[in-house]
Design goal:
Strand content: 25-35%
CATH architecture of the largest domain: 3-Layer(bba) Sandwich
Radius of gyration: 22 Å
Distance between the termini: 32 Å
Helix content: 25-40%
Number of helices: 9
Number of strands: 26
CATH topology of the largest domain: FAD/NAD(P)-binding domain
Largest sheet: 9 strands, mixed
Structural class: alpha/beta
CATH class of the largest domain: Alpha Beta
């Protein structure tokens, strides 16, 4: 059973485990769960003490869901010992990590799944004035800013930087909220007073999807009043404005940064090879070369011969694969090479429309059918039954009342 009293503090006694997992995102969580299911003792250390279900963060930011739905306490993972603490350094040869408070943890096998952090690409003013959307605290900061703008009772402009899945989904959700939900929640609010801009260097939104999906997404959002600035980069972010690389400047009462992430693993000794994006180089079995009992998975790692995108589906499959690999190693067998199963991709566009490219061949589905598929999949992926029920109830409530119970929560 998992610990019932919450994650242990970092300075608590730290006996060795069969498996030490660093990072509680998709990769780390599923690696820990699978290894524990294979009968291995597992310690999972994470700075937050909970997993944040990132695919639904934009709904927290726009007030459609409460934050507790997307936060899953790691001490509730059966068979896993959860330790809350931030790792500052990793000794690959000793398969141990040092935490910021000076305490240490060690495992017979080490799994590094530290994810990534927001990449501001050194754009002047972006770190100071733009709001990222990568953690639960980011989503709450966006919602708080939205509420401040509403309270001011004046017209305002939102600029979303990045037209990938995160940027498109938060844009669509905010569009629905300001056009439909807010006028019903706050009767003196007019959705026509808000303009939402999207800036991206690509020529179309959802660059990772087909041209048909891109065209559909752009058409749906433009019909909702979204203004696209494609083929442009942000050159500067100031308080109240954004300047593009062509010199044009636009008003920006809130800037949401959804332009990408960069791997930032802890300091490792000996230092492994890494790509220009910071991702640690791994072999086909997801191990760091030269360290047969050290795995590195998820957003912080990449096989140079077969790099995969930084997606939750990749991280989850890698975590499960490593958990099974450790079970094989326990019985004297070598890990098998990892093979990613491409299940397709999807993006929510508005409260009743989405775009899905299903399966290895990315068969396109859009509209209401895709919306239903998106809801069903994301409800199923939530790690806790209570959260699934609460999310579905919130979606039904918003669809039927066009109001939000969580904008002020």
């Amino acid at each position: 059973m998992g610990n019932s009293g919450g994650p242990e503090p970092a300075g608590a006694a730290t006996p060795d485990s069969d498996v030490l997992v660093v990072g509680g995102g998709f990769a780390g969580l599923y690696a820990a769960k699978t290894a524990a299911h294979r009968g291995l003792s597992v310690t999972l250390v994470d700075a937050q003490g909970h997993q944040t279900f990132q695919p639904l963060l934009y709904q927290v930011a726009s007030g459609l869901l409460p934050v507790d739905v997307v936060d899953y306490p790691l001490h509730e993972v059966p068979g896993v010992r959860a330790v809350q603490g931030r790792v500052s350094a990793a000794d690959l040869e000793g398969r141990s990590v040092t935490l910021e408070d000076g305490s240490a943890l060690r495992g017979d096998s080490l799994i590094l799944a530290t994810g990534a952090s927001v990449n501001f690409y050194d754009v002047p003013g972006a770190r100071e004035h733009a709001l990222p959307l990568y953690r639960d605290t980011d989503a709450l900061a966006i919602k708080a800013r939205l509420l401040d703008l509403i309270a001011a009772k004046a017209a305002f402009d939102v600029v979303v930087v990045g037209a990938g899945a995160t940027g498109v989904e938060v844009t669509g959700a905010l569009g629905d909220v300001v056009r439909t939900v807010l006028p019903r929640t706050y009767p003196d609010f007019s959705g026509e007073s808000v303009t939402i801009h999207v800036v991206d260097h690509a020529s179309a939104p959802l660059a990772h999807m087909s041209t048909a999906s891109q065209a559909y997404a752009q058409r749906v959002l433009e019909q909702a009043g979204v203004v696209f600035h494609l083929g442009s980069n942000v050159a500067r972010v100031d308080e109240g404005s954004v300047t593009l690389d062509g010199g044009a400047s636009m008003r920006a009462d809130m800037v949401i940064w959804a332009a990408g992430v960069r791997a930032r693993p802890p300091v490792m000794s000996p230092a492994p090879a890494a790509g220009s994006d910071g991702r640690v180089a791994i072999d086909s079995t997801l191990r760091i070369p030269g360290h047969p009992r050290v795995f590195c998975i998820g957003d912080c790692a990449a096989d140079p011969a077969h790099p995969l995108p930084q997606l939750g589906s990749v991280a989850k499959q890698q975590g499960i694969h490593v958990g099974h690999s450790l079970g094989r190693m326990r019985h004297g067998h070598e890990p098998k090479p990892f093979s990613y199963r491409d299940l397709g991709t999807m993006a929510m566009l508005r409260h009743d429309r989405a775009v899905v490219e299903a399966g290895r061949h990315h068969h396109q589905i859009d509209g209401v059918a895709a919306y239903a598929m998106w809801l069903g999949l994301h409800a199923a992926l939530l790690p806790d039954d209570h959260d699934r029920v609460e999310a579905v109830h919130a979606w039904i409530d918003e669809a039927t009342t066009k109001r939000s119970r969580f904008l002020g929560a």
